[in-house]
């Protein structure tokens, strides 16, 4: 199954959710609780279903009284690790200003967190992984860590997987210190992570060898043009100015 097919219909999606996401019933506001429960199942299990989460945001858009800011933040947090897929931007596009105007018993955390989440997503897209970890570990995002990402099983490792995909596509060899800055790991934790990846680490040179793959191999390409005489005659005739 291709990555796109898994994005459209994850193999872990339950049959009930499939019927909600694929049919007109996804616009039924009475189903929002089912979809929210499914989101929290994703948070606890490391599963991910973008279309189901987008369906929640669409219901909030049509029914502002259903709006739950914690659910929205969790959807955005799950979408962070989807780079290079456009899940985060799709989620933001379905959010509007009506929800923030609701009368709620507690302050809405989303307006304060959204700029930071957007910045984190941008840093991932740009492969600026050390900057991502610096911002993520900052005091400004203590609320995000303590109230949201701590609940998302495997969140930090899912971000590391984004970095690993970028490294695999770019490097054949990389210094362990540089790789550690991408993964926010050092020492024994970094060596254990490298071992789990199946990559070779030379402790004498502190160099990590990335296994060959189609993206990190340099291959020469010969481009052969096949131009027929009739086509060449037309090109020449157009190039000669009319007398």
What does the secondary structure layout of this molecule look like, with pairings?
Elements: H1 3-8, H2 15-22, H3 32-45, H4 50-62, H5 69-80, H6 87-93, H7 110-125, H8 129-136, H9 142-147, H10 155-170, E1 173-175, H11 176-183, H12 187-197, E2 200-202, E3 207-209, H13 229-239
Antiparallel strand pairs: 1-3, 2-3
Helix pairs in contact: 3-4, 3-5, 5-6, 5-7, 7-8
Question: Care to give the gist of this entry?
Answer:
The chain has 243 residues and is mainly alpha-helical.
Word description of this protein:
With 243 residues, the protein is mainly alpha-helical. Helix content is 56%, strand content 4%. The chain has 2 domains: 1-97 and 104-170, Alpha Horseshoe (Serine Threonine Protein Phosphatase 5, Tetratricopeptide repeat), CATH 1.25.40.250; 175-243, no CATH class. It has helices at 3-8, 15-22, 32-45, 50-62, 69-80, 87-93, 110-125, 129-136, 142-147, 155-170, 176-183, 187-197, 229-239; strands at residues 173-175, 200-202, 207-209. A 3-stranded antiparallel β-sheet has the order 1-3-2. Strand 2 (200-202) and strand 3 form a beta hairpin. Helix 3 runs antiparallel to helix 4, helix 5 packs parallel to helix 7 (110-125) and helix 7 (110-125) packs antiparallel against helix 8 (129-136). The chain is globular and about 75 Å long. The chain starts with a helix and ends with a helix.
